[in-house]
Specification:
The protein has no helices and 5 strands. The protein starts with 24 loop residues before the first strand and ends with a strand. Strands 1, 2, 3, 4 and 5 form a 5-stranded antiparallel sheet that branches. 0% of the residues lie in helices and 28% in strands. It is mostly beta strands.
Length: 60
Amino acid sequence: MTDTPAFDRRMLEALICPLTQGPLDYDAAAQELVSKSAKLAFPIRNGIPVMLIDEARALD
């Protein structure tokens, strides 16, 4: 089993959506930060959020 670094939830206080400047929600199951206003989900890889718009997944 491979241990991946955990996302530090305290980072949510400092991070905002790069598109809308709005708040983000942490989805622990999907390892994503979700911007409801932009309808985008930003991946978390090895405990580090990837806040690039072209790396984000569009939400339905």
